[in-house]
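Incident log, structure service

09:12 report received: a user says their structure output differs between two submissions of the same chain.
09:20 pulled the input from the user's history:
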Amino acid sequence: MRRIVIGSMVGTTIEFYDFYIYATAAALVFGTVFFPKYAAGTQSLAALATFGIAFFARPFGALLFGHFGDRIGRKSTLVASLLTMGISTAAIGLLPGYDSIGWLAPGLLCVLRLGQGIGLGGEWGGAALLAVENAPRGRGAWFGMFPQLGPPAGFLLSNGLFLLLDLTLGPARFAAWGWRIPFLLSSVLVIIGLYVRLQLTETPEFIRLAATAKRVRLPLRGLISQHWRPLVLGSFAMVAAYATFYISTAFATSYAAHRGLIPHDKFLLLLCIAIFAMAAMSPVAAWLADRLGCRTVLIGACLLTALAGFTTLPLLGSGEVGKTLLFLLLQLGLMGFLFTPMGLLLPAIFPAEVRYSGAASAYSLGGIIGASFAPYVAQLLLLHGGLSWVGYYLTLAALISAVALLALTQVRQELGIEQIAEAQP
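09:34 re-ran on a clean worker, output below:
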């Protein structure tokens, strides 16, 4: 069980490390490195727009890796997804800037960002299944928590490294070449992750599935024709978590840096402190979800997040370190409750024969709706309406997820999952 826990967490840590270093670099340096300057703010908008590309590639990755995960097994598919992400990330670290190769630079950046999205699209679903399909009954949320700890661990690793480089190299050298180091170091982490993944065995659920010849030839067709409602509802249930995380990290980093409110090295330090709130709340959320049900915990978290959206202007907009840290602690603490139970809920609403495809697709489609252009939209709202509208955006996202979670009750019988209230697969 220790090997399963480590295997489910190490991959998501590496994958989200790769994903987050792009978000941080896009907020800090990608605008000036890969794009020409036409007007004030356009470089930042262009860089944040490329951030969203990966979310559109994630459903393709979910379907691609989900097909093989449901057909040939969880283990080998997870190895392939890790390689896809690792190669794409390391290549970004070697990519010349706009001054060297012109428009080819942002074009190649977009291609490699697509590769990151495809890899991550296949990673999360397999890691979640690896954990929950091995979990003892009644402890699904607890075991499903470990792949969910990958994002805060990867975020802390990525932002901590960016902060260290910024402090040791200085702004000039960091902007010139220092930002490339986290991308190149990804190759080392991928080698470690591959070693861990190759030691794993297949999940008992998939072994039973293969033994009973219930594997479907085309999981995508079965998913869309028979399980489209849980797919849609699961996707919208993810919206609040995605919007909360990326607005309080990628957008907030860009906002603080470009408004000159808090130096970006200090803001990265605040984020590193605040991410512990997400990690600390994750086991609390898992413990409650195993006792009260995933859906109950998630709906409560959505309602609290809707209220927390109104703190955006007075806290983040204050420009004060203490109030900004309070905003980040509040948002990322709630993120622990919004995200952790999803490690069990999304696999639980799909039968085993399409579970990889279903859980991964719902997770990835939720990313398109809730996160793909969340920093970009937040930037537009900031420019045309003010910071308070960014908070309203968070409130709306939370209410959308709450409605989707409530609607899951109405289709529970058709899902064939009697324990949907407890979200036990």
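09:41 both user submissions now match this output. Likely a transient worker issue. Closing.
09:42 reviewer note: Residues 411-425 have pLDDT under 50 and may be disordered. The CA atoms of residues 69 and 196 lie 18 Å apart.
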